[in-house]
Design a protein that fits this description.
This protein is an alpha/beta fold. It contains seven helices and 13 strands. The strands form two sheets. The protein has an eight-stranded mixed beta sheet with strand order 1-4-3-2-5-6-13-12, sandwiched between helices. A five-stranded antiparallel beta sheet has the order 7-8-9-10-11. A hairpin with a 3-residue loop joins strand 8 and strand 9. The longest helix has 23 residues. It starts with a strand and ends in a 10-residue tail after the last strand. The relative contact order is 0.15.
Amino acid sequence: SRTTLSASSREACGVGARSLVRSRSVADADGELLESQIEYYRARVPDYDDWWFRRGRHDVGEAFAKRWDGEIARVRAAFDAFAPHGDVLELAAGTGNWTVEIARHAGRITAVDAAPEAFDSARKKLSGATVPIDWVVADLFAWEPPRRYDVVCFSFWLSHVPLGRFDEFWSLVDAALKADGRVFFLDNAHPALGGPAIPRRFRQDGTRIEGIDSWTDLESGVSTRTVADGREFDIVKVFWEPEPLRRRLASLGWDIEVSTTNWAFLYGHGSRLDGHGSRRNP
C-alpha cells in the first residue's frame, strides 16, 4: 500500500501548505464549521473505535452491545449482497472499520480521508489484506478523483456534509464513477427511529438531543462534540430519513434504494439514472 498527501492537506501534516478550509472565502459560512470538523476527527482518532466496538465510555452494557452487533450484522449482510467488486473508492475512510469490509470484495481500494492519524489505525487493521490499498490524505471538499472507479463507498460521512454542499458532494461522487458505476453508503439512522433502552438516560431539549459525548441540534444540523481530553468541537451532523433522502438524490439524477436497519443505521445503494429515468446499472 502507499500513502499520498494532497496539497490541501499538507498543513494538517505539518509540511507547509495552507489547508483548503483556511483558504476559503470568508463568505463561506460552512468553512469554520468544516475546519472544526476536521480537527475534531483528528483529535478523536485515539478513541474513535471505542464507539464502533462499544468500549470505554461508549460501553453502555452487554445487552446494548449485543443489539448493536446485531445491527452491524444486518448492514454487513446488505453490503455483502451489494458486493463492491473491482476498483473501489472509499471516501472518508477514517480508521478503516469499513475498509476492512470493502477489502473482502474489492480488487483495489483507494481510501481518502482528511485525518492522517486515522490511517495509522486503518493500516494496522488492513495489514493482512491481499488487496492493494492507496491511502490518500485529502479534504474531500478539495480533492478531485484521478480516475473513475467501479464503486464509491462512504460510511458515516453523508451526515457530515452540510446541506449547502450536498449537491457539490454528489457531483464528486458522479465524477468518480464509471458510466456503470455503483455507490454504497452507511450512516447513523435518524434518532426518531428509536432504539433499545440503555442504562444511561439521554436528554432531549426541543430539537437538541444528547449523545454519549455530544449535543446535536436536529434543526440546525450542528453537533457539539467532546473528546477524551475535554476539548469541544462543533461539527456538521445532518440526520436523514430514507424517503426524503431518496427523493433528494432522485432530483440529482440518482436511483438509490435507501433503507434502515431496525434502529441504528441508514444505508443506501444504487447508481445513476439514465436520461429516461431508469437505472443504468441493474
